[in-house]
Structure formats: structure tokens, C-alpha cells
Amino acid sequence: MKYGFARRVHKLKSSAVRDLLKIINQGNIISFAGGLPDDGLFPLEAVENAFDKAFQSGKQALQYAETEGLAPFREAIAERMAKNGIKSSIDDILVTTGSQQAIDLFTRIMFDPGDVVLTENPTYLAALQVFQSYEVDVKPVLSDEQGMIPEDLDNKVKKYNPKAIYVIPTFSNPTGKAWSHERREHLLEIAKKRNVIIFEDDPYGEIKFDDNETFVPIAAMDTEGTHVLYTSTFSKTVVPALRTGWIKGPYQIIRMMAQAKQATDLHTNSLSQHALYHLLRDFDLDSHIKTLRKTYCSRMKIMKELLESINMPGFSYIVPKGGMFFWVSMPDAINVTSLLDEAVKRGVAYVPGAPFYVDKPELNTLRLNYTHSAPDKLKKGMEILTDVFSNTLTNAK
Amino acid sequence: MKYGFARRVHKLKSSAVRDLLKIINQGNIISFAGGLPDDGLFPLEAVENAFDKAFQSGKQALQYAETEGLAPFREAIAERMAKNGIKSSIDDILVTTGSQQAIDLFTRIMFDPGDVVLTENPTYLAALQVFQSYEVDVKPVLSDEQGMIPEDLDNKVKKYNPKAIYVIPTFSNPTGKAWSHERREHLLEIAKKRNVIIFEDDPYGEIKFDDNETFVPIAAMDTEGTHVLYTSTFSKTVVPALRTGWIKGPYQIIRMMAQAKQATDLHTNSLSQHALYHLLRDFDLDSHIKTLRKTYCSRMKIMKELLESINMPGFSYIVPKGGMFFWVSMPDAINVTSLLDEAVKRGVAYVPGAPFYVDKPELNTLRLNYTHSAPDKLKKGMEILTDVFSNTLTNAK
Hints:
2 copies of one chain form a homodimer. Chain A contains 13 helices and 15 strands. Chain A has 397 residues and is an alpha/beta fold.
């Protein structure tokens, strides 16, 4: 039988990253491809203890639950956000099945086919997948190392009258960039002036390398809480398996997202919510995050050192101040997707940058993750990779 | 700020049942409203043991995972389905965040706005919510106690050229009905003849009251595996909190749903998948299900006895052969939504039948759940409710 799919699936491409993960998981490959935290650093004992407490809290923790999320868990989330300057009440918070679902639900309730969202370029590819699957018209805004360029942002807001602006201002995926304070302020200003929603995706904000630097979430600047939706997750700071994130924003939008969530999956795994509630209450998550920062920073430096060893015109990279990724540019002539075969043959994987672009991909870019591999593996993999790169660069001359 | 939502949200109504749950959870009310299993019967020890084993299986169980679901878990699901005559390989199975997500993903990949789905009437209201949220045109097929009436089904398949037919053939929600074997065969026959997908939603099939009766899933009749998508869940047989279900069907459709799932929530909570895998391997789930059958059957009989005590023209109900619900009809003149206030004041809740209808709701119908309340509460609640009903019926004469 030939199956007639909906029009929207023609826009639906499988994530290159996730398909790659399957291949990589099968072999003995050093992977800089995924966006995985290091499982060696998972706070396993804390998570186990938290589940024990969840079980002790009674059978109610195993029953159907409210779509909005467990109320004491939302309170704990509100407290955590308050530490970053984001004010909220539990009614402004919806617990989601990972922050991926927050992007999906928002898009579902906000965008008709042809409505416009502005994004950075490149940007998180699974956000692009969501936008495309709802036939949203994605328009990229020019960026530099400080964030979106104000002139281009202003022009495109005027020209396209977007419903929302999707940004990852703190240690973005894929580029690892952090926006300057001024650019954040400007974005909020234009959003307020033109009544556009900012969707601030912040899975990496906690993973910062310099304790003395501060990156204020745009949601914290939006003191009236009218223009910013803020989403984050426990996938990077606790464990990914629980698929538990949240979104905070204007009540009217959160309420509508909760209604959409009812139809999508009724509610997020409530045993995991109970467990995370206990973990937030009884475990020193901030101290654990400090360990993550230190460890990931030292791995970033190992990777940086080896990238520095490549000294060729046209080869460049952004040194991240936090998060999980290096963004690397090769000379224009080099197609990194073809190069990937060679790298995988030699036992190392990365992700080509192309799928992160809204349009006209820059085929000479790639993303490297430094959080997943232990230092010795990281070093070994980077030695191979820099060799692959150097050979290519030498041959390309 | 005034927020401009997508057109599809105007079709999105909050589920009357789930909103009701919130009120009921706050008060000291005996509830026949939700579709909740009894938490007193949850296999708590088995679930705890299963989580212990999942934790022991290593940190990998807490990492990001494949969208399709944990392979050994899908194998265990395939084995369970095989017992019911449904043949599958793990590639035909997608693990979903509850079977609700299976309905959502299927609708998302299959239906453009205006495409038609045929359903029973009344039918599962959260399926109607999904269809409506994607602007699917839902057309009801006339049914009797045996299932969809063949003539009407044939006519409507011809007339509307539907993309799919959504059915809950075994102990349906809300009516508790079970389709006859002949009607199942007829449905499959017409689906094959006209190339229509059957979406068989089967969360209740395991909860049957007579061991000697057999209800063959339509998916088991579809020996070539080309025309039936079959979804079920562990929410009714293990616990609901884990939000873990699955869908089985033609690889091409399952593959497309997996792609849609990537954009929706990346993958289902993998710690829960690991735990359920261990539970299926080490716990005698079939014996547990036998206990559920026996217990729920005896509660159904308590409810039946009290319903029998109402002997008035125009009052009727369907005696279920399994599942979780009685479907009750009052005389035409009685609006059960108004009557609900009176019932709740006296400490008992039920769900009006209206939201389960595709169109033209029969305002004199209601659904009663008998699985959630322990026998003494069930009896007490039903005594109050039959009193409320009898008073109304007497007054209405």
C-alpha cells in the first residue's frame, strides 16, 4: 500500500545528528558529534536517592497527574530561576517533556503556515525542524560574535512582522557564542516596541566557564514578564534520560500551551517530576554544576590547544565561554561532509554545520562537542582530527 | 500585550475531564469522573525493583537515547503483542510518550487540514482534541453494540474518502463496548478494499472480565501488516506516571512518526523504558493483570447492581465486558451537565457524555468509571448518585 502523508512531512527531515548517533553508537568511534553530556559525570547516587524518595512519597506519584506539572516541583523551578533574576509564579510555568517539547508546543499554538519566525543563523537544528514541520517561514538575522546585528534585526522585524524571535543567547548551539548585554537589551527593546515574542532557549546557561562573568537572561530583563518565553532543562545539569524541562512566560501563552500539551502527551512523566523535586530539595545541584563547569572547561581547553596547532589561512573557530561546543570554519573550498567519511574511517566523528543553517548552508563549517569524551579520548580524537584537517588543508593548497 | 495565536488553537478546548480532575483532586469527592486505575493496586514493589535494576544497568540508562525506543524494550513489547496474535519486528514499533502521543504523531504526519478521519460516536475525547487541533474533518460513523454499522461505514468511506478510521474496538472509552469479530473483519475488509488506514487504539484490551471470551485485535487480523496501526500503553496495566506507550504499524509510517517524534520530544524517558524492560522480564505482569481483571470486574458488578436499582423508562446503560467504564443514558429531557452540580454538592462526580461526541452531543449521557474507587467508596458514591438520579427522574415525570 502507498501511504499518503500530510504535506507538512515533506518538510520533515530526520536530524542528521540523531541519525549519526545511531551509527556512532554501533562502532568504536570517538564522537564529537552529539550534544551529549558526559555520563561519567552523572550524579547517579543523587538521582537514585531522589527516586527512592519519590517512591516513598506514595502511590500517588505513580498516578495520572496535572498537565501543568507537579506544583511543588514548579515552585522549586521558580526558585532556581529567581537566582538568575527571573521572577515567576508557578502559574507561569509549564513542565515539558524536555525543552524540545517547549519549542514544539509554542510553535503549535502560535504559528499558522506562512507566519514568520526570526532566528540566528546557524541555529539549533531541531528548532528548525519544528518550525519547518509547522510550515513556519524562518527568516535568518545576521549575527556577529555579540549576537544579532541591531540594524539587520530592526529591518527584518519591520519587513517580516514576525510572530516571534527564537534565540539561544547564552552559549548557543551550534556556535557556542554568548550575546553581549547590550545586544540582549536591544533585542528586548525592539520586541517590546513592535510587540514580538522572544523565545529564549537556554539549555546551556548554567555551564559557564568564568565565575566572574555574568550573562543575564533576557527573561530577567523583561521585568513585566510580557514579551519573553524562557525555556530550560535538566538534561545538561542532571541527566538527559528523564526528558524533563520547563517553560516560563506570560500566563495566557503558558495556559494555551498546557491545553496543547493535554492533546500531545497528557502530562510529563510524573515519577521523574517527583524525583527531580526531591533532588532539587536535597541535593546540592549548584555544587554539582560547579564540577561540571570546571570539568567541561578543562576539556574545552584540551580541544582548543589542538585546534590552535592548526595554523592555516581560512581555518578558524570560536572559543566558547561556556556550553558544549566549538564552531569551526574550514577554508571555503572544503566540504566537511565529504571529509566526515575520512574522519569516521579513522575513528572520529563530528557534525557538519550545514543542517544548522536556515538556508544557503556554509559547507565548510562543523561543530565539535567537548563534553562527552573523557580527556584521554578527547585528546586522542583531536589528534586524529587535526591530522585529518591538516592533511586536507595541505592538499587543498 | 495581546497575543496572536495560531488558527488551530481556536479548535483547541481544554479537556473537560482533565479540568474536572483538578477540582476533584482538591475536594473530598468520590470520583467516577476520570479514567484512572486504582493506585491501591499499583505493583509498587515491582516498579521499584525495576528502577533499581535500571540504575544498576549503568549510567548509559540516563543518557540521551534513540528516538525509536530502547531496542530490548521494543523486543519485549513485540513478544507481548505476539501473545495476542499481533506479529511484529522491532522496526515496526515506536515507543511513545504515552499512547496519547501515538495519536498525536499519527495525526501530525498523516492529515492536512480538511482531510477526513472516520470515528465512532461518541469516542475518546482526547483523540477528538488531537484531530481538531490539526483541523482534521472528523466524520462519525453510526454504531450499535457490535461496532460500526457496515452499511454506514461503507457509505462514509465512499463518500468521504477518509485517510484513516480511528477505533477503540475493545472496551471503548467512553462506552465500554467491545466489537464483534464479524464487525472487526468487515472493517479490515473495507479498509483494504479502499486503501484506508485503521488506527486501532487499545489501552483497555487487557482488562477483560471473562477469561473464556476472546477479542482478536484488528491488527492481528491484518496478517500482512499493511493497513492497521495498533497502539497501547502500560498506563492501565502497570502505572500511568511513566507515560510510556507504543505504536506498531507499517514501517514506512512508523519511520515517519519517529522523525516527527524527534522534533516533538527527541525520545521517551529512557530510564522508564529501561525500568519497564526489566519489569516485563522479571515480573509476572500477566498474573498482575489477572488480579486487575478480577478486582475491576467485581467493582463493575457493584456499580451494576446499584444502576439496576433504578428502574425508570428512558434510563439505560451498557454492561461492559471489560475496560473501565459504564456508559449511562438518562431520559432525553435531562441535561446531565446541570445535574453534575447537584452530584458534586453531594460529594460525587462523573463526566457528562457531551464532550465525547463528534457533533450534536446527546446531553442526557454520562460516563462512570468503576476502577478508581475502592469498593466501599464505590458503593457509597453510587448510593448517593442513584439517589440524585432517582430524584431527578421522579421530578422529571
